[in-house]
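Z., the sequence and structure:
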Amino acid sequence: MTTTHTGPLRTSPSLNALTAPLVERLVADAEALRLAVTTEHGARMIDAGAKVRGSIEAGRRIAEICLGGLGTVTIAPTGPISAWPYSVIVHSADPVLACLGSQYAGWSLADEDGGSDFFALGSGPGRAVAVVEDLYKELGYRDSASAIALVLEGASAPPASVVAKVAEAAGLTASGVTFIYAPTQSMAGSTQVVARVLEVALHKAHTVGFDLHKIVDGIGSAPLSPPHPDFIKAMGRTNDAIIYGGRVQLYVEADAADARQLAEQIPSTTSADHGAPFADIFSRVNGDFYKIDGALFSPAEVIVTSVTTGESFRGGKLMPELVEASFR
């Protein structure tokens, strides 16, 4: 369902202003975090796991950058999956703007000059300045900034054509753009992907047509998946962490009926593809990502609490055995 926002355009807070100190601290601590900071095609590039080792801590920080400075990401031994006790925990008091306005990987970036096969989905606060996605019409939000950051899930820095495209869309020179990139196989890459457990719940709420402005708080957790050098296995583990081990609680200003319905609609159990490790599903569709039922990309279990009535409703279930099968 697509709804055009009809209220006044929201321009505060500035996601990129909130994120700028986080980016600068990442750069300042690059050596300790095992990152590489360079300048290419006029833009600042931060390699967090392609040609360098990177770290889990780097991934945690990158996840907070993805959230536009509106969320916290912690790693703690509080998970429900006993064999893999460490979890990535994500919280935001403004989850719609943090997760959909910033963290969601909604900007398709490809080498339009044809000089390479580069393709990546851009996430992070820079999206809210470029606003090339229709989603921002629904959110009723636009940021303005003299410097932006984008996070890419990939194994190489973007080529000149992508740098130019991003800078032009944001109304900046290349020097005003920072790209942070790490492949899924890396420690930083796998950590920041699992930290999307809350974001996928917000995306699912949007997909089923729930009024996003009624979501007032959110918290999620998922087991920290061990990295794997094989891309398919690494991708399978990060997805399984959320699909079979992820938990989310949303707080909504809605009546009991709407809260109950949302709790029933969000979990991954609503998908016809649910019940097998993600890598197996990916193989079954011959590597065609778009043949996978989109309803699968959701947390395993969801609690929706109505702050209007005080009632909470649950949907879905954890499947520790599938997390174990994927991670081992």
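The radius of gyration is 19 Å. DSSP finds 13 helices and twelve strands in the chain.

Let me know what you think.
H.
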